[in-house]
Amino acid sequence: MSVEQKTVSLPFKIKFSYSMGQIGDALGYNIYFFFFLFFLTDYVGVPPALAGTISLIAIIWDAIFDPVAGHISDNMRSPYGRRRPLMIMAALPYSIFAFLIFNSIALGTQATFIYFLVMTILFWSSYKFFVIPYFALGAELTDDFNERTTLRAWSSVGLYIAVMLASALPPYLLEYFENSGMSGQNSWRIIGAIFASGILLSAVICWNFTRGKEIYQHDQQAKQKMARSSLFKAIGQIIKLKPTKYLAGSVFFWAIASTMAMGGLIYLMKYNLGYGADRQSLYFIINSLVCIAWLPFINMAARRYDKKMVYACFLGIGSLGLLFFSLTGFPLFAILLIFCVIFCLGDSTYWTLYYSMMYDICEVDEYVNNRRREGVVTAVMSFSQKIGAACATWFTGLLLAFGGYEGTVETQTDSAHQMILYVNTLVPGVFGALAVLAVLFYPVTKKRFDSMMVALNAKRENKAYDDTDFKEML
């Protein structure tokens, strides 16, 4: 018989401090996906297809080593926990390379390609050793099905504050510095330094105020069950889990949709719509505020109706919006804002609920394989997300090149304008629909999860248990 567990709320201090770590994650992640391709094409002069290839190689490199970071995190033995030591060690190099990727050096085409490829590889490598333990930490702060959603809603507030800063601030600062007589390349150096400082500060706040709050940190019985296992065996066991396959597929497809739709906006607003820095910044501020405004509604709906169906429904609405606006375009700023409201419902749901759903796989892994491997579970999902994001930047570069886009000219051709529109709407809309289709097969629901937790607690205590009510998850 299924059992309904009572939700145990986390203290405000923990939710707030954990959300600060999300700011550290999202500042670097979003300034990269919003502006790095644009920086390379329009300020360094790298051809768009080559610029997209730099991102593709670097992010695939990072994604491949995500499981390594997760495995190291899972197997760390420290009185300070398994996650936080890695987070603080990675925070400084992560912030340094966030600064260096926006530094242009006068080199030839080949040397420029090598320089930015190396810098982006180092950026993403240090990023993963902060963010994989950070996300795994979230699964260790609570094992409550609903409270994980609330924790992720708090984190999403931090996420969209960072998105607002990473999207709205650079165009404004760029125009301000250039109007003051500074070159565009030097302007980007200052912008990189500002964001690097924000990354380091928020990471340190999260690290400091979550110390000792992991629910399994002092549980000797849990430590005994977390025996060391090989990396490849751990990855194989987690990938075999039924929930992993379908959630990872959905994460991959929406990562493509989200990255293309958001990363292409700077091209859309500058070239198709003719917006200056003020209008661009205004849109990005509104975009982030709309995403934050959706969060209480998403959290309430997920707690009432189940994460999976809310996730599928709201991503579906966002995907339909993308497809619809590929036909209409954006003749008015008000139309762009309507697009923002519809797409943000899907995107906010993705960044809030997919992590919460991912955390629930950690208990499925423990039930099936007798291991707590939050790090590797996080890494597998991060791999799917980053491969999707890498494909998106590569697709964007290729499609822009195919449409005849030239980053060194002020006026684009009609074919380039049309391709910019499709990069922001039609193509991500198709991938968004695939994300919805994949998650419909995801088997974890609250009733099944609560029943499994009863059985898991009995299993931990070597008591009798039954899996009849949650067999479909296994």
From TrEMBL:
Pfam families, per database record: MFS_2 (PF13347)
Transmembrane keyword on record: yes
GO biological process, one term: sodium ion transport
Membrane-crossing segments per the record: 21-40, 46-65, 86-107, 113-137, 149-170, 190-210, 246-269, 281-302, 309-327, 333-355, 376-400, 420-444
CDD domains: MFS_MelB_like
GO molecular function, one term: symporter activity
Keywords associated with the record: Membrane, Transmembrane, Transmembrane helix
InterPro entries: MFS_2 (IPR039672), MFS_trans_sf (IPR036259), Na/Gal_symport (IPR001927)
CC annotations in GO: plasma membrane
Protein name (record): Sugar (Glycoside-Pentoside-hexuronide) transporter
